[in-house]
Every structure is written in C-alpha cells, then in structure tokens.
Amino acid sequence: MSSDIIRVGLIGGGGIASAHIAGYAEHPDTIRIAAVADAFAATAEERGAELGVPFFTDYLAMLEQADIDAVDICLPHHLHRDAIVAAAKAGKHVLCEKPLCLSPDEAADVQRAVSESGITLMCAHNQLFMPAVAKAKELIDGGALGTVYEVRTTDSFRNEFDPSNMGWRAHASTRRRRRAHRHGVPPELTCSCTWPVASRCRPPRCCPRTGWRSWRARTRRRPCSASTTAPWASS
I want to staple 174 with a disulfide (CB 3.0 to 4.6 A). Which of 25, 66, 78, 159 is the partner? Predict the structure, then answer.
C-alpha cells in the first residue's frame, strides 16, 4: 500500500460514522480508515470487523498504539473537546464533527492544543461544499451583493426524533452552544451552522405534524468575506 495514503483512526463508530465511512470508501487511493475506537465494545468490534482494522474501546489507547496519521471524531458534542485535545497532543491531525466544542473554556482549550501541536484541525461542515453555499460565497466574494452585513440560513430535514429516541441529543447539557463568541472565542469553533459562520444560533424546532426539524442561524457583524467568515480549517 502506498505510503501516501492517509491513515485515519475513527473515534466513535455509531450514527454519523456511517456517512464518514462511505466517504472514505470513495477515495481508497487517497485515504482509508486504519483503526476504530468506540466506548461500546460491541460497536467497536462490529466496526472493526466491517472495516478489517484494529478496534479499541478507549480512543487514548488507539492514539498510542494504532498506526494512524489523523483521527475523525464522530462523538456526541460534549465529548469533542477532550478528543480533539488528546489527538492534538498525540500529534494527529483532526477532522471533527460539528460543533467543535460547547463553551468558551472548551474553545480556548481546543485553540491552545492545536496551536501548540501544529496539527491541522478541520470541522466537518459538510454544507460548505453544497452548490448553493458555494454559489453564495462566489457572489459575496465577487461583490455582486455589495457589502453584506447580515446573513440568514435555514437547514431543514425530516427525521423521527422525539425525546424518547434522541439519546444524548435530548439533553441540553450535551448539545448546547453557549455564546462563546461574546467572550472573544472565534464563532467557527462553536457553531454548527452553514457558512458564513453565524454568531447566533437558535435551537432546532420540530414540526409535530411533519417531523421536520429546522435550524435557523443569523449573523450580524462585520462585513462578510471569505477571509473573515470561513476559517473552517486551522493549522
């Protein structure tokens, strides 16, 4: 196997990890999953067998023992900070599901760990690459809209969530984004909205009739540009 292939350690094998695994499978000559860690032994073993890679029930052990270049963090929101910091200290590059963290203190820890280690950190804002979002960026960068001071976006999709089946998502303590930007923390570290990065997020609302959830985000701050609103990767 070519040494140019990026070897990824998957941290968290449930839920959204399936979408990440499918993405890696489309680029086998560039990147592959080389190890997986999940706190649930059955999930770790199942993913390890599925991918044909070593599996761990402790991602710290994976960071120490597995032959990997980077990690992909697919954990619940409240576990992101600790995993990012641990991976950075181990010298592994990081792709992490959104949001990267939940509070000003967590954001400061992430920023410090990344800066000190020199690793590359990227948030999995997949919607950055959607055609409509790319077109909006093109229009703003090209000056077609003049000076943009406020952007509103809505992200809606259908699911069958209710408090009985939402797991960790049903608890405010595990998913709330505190207003870290008011404490001098870059909002891209805490927000899970579409580009441009929003400085205010409202909680998701679910329509009882259709089951559609909707996130509404609004930003009103300095004029928008690629250099000021889309630093989604840092190194």
Answer: 78
Phi and psi at 35, nearest 5°, equal -165, 160
The angle, 0 to 180 degrees and rounded to 10, between the axes of the packed helices 80-89 and 104-117 is 20
Within 8 A by CB and 6+ apart from 231, the residues are 186, 188
Active-site pick, 92, 98, 135, 137:
98
Residue 158, token pair as written in the block: 């259908």
Kindly state whether residues 75 and 179 are assigned to the same domain: no
Residues 147 and 64 in one domain: no
Give the residue among 63, 10, 60 at the shortest CA–CA distance from 36. Answer: 10
Six-digit token string for 16: 């959204």
**Mean pLDDT in consecutive groups of 10 residues from the start of the chain, 235 residues:** 84 93 96 97 97 98 98 94 98 94 93 96 85 90 89 73 68 54 43 36 42 42 41 36
Encoded tokens for 75: 């954990």
What pLDDT, on the 0 to 100 scale, is given for residue 82? 97
Answer yes or no: 98 catalytic: yes
In angstroms, how far is CA 139 from the centroid of its own chain? 26
The total number of structural domains that make up the chain: 2
Per the domain annotation, does 1 fall within a domain? no
Beta bridge partners of 37: 11, 56
DSSP H or E run through 219: strand 212-220
pTM to 2 decimal places: 0.71
- Its domain, for residue 160, covers 130-234
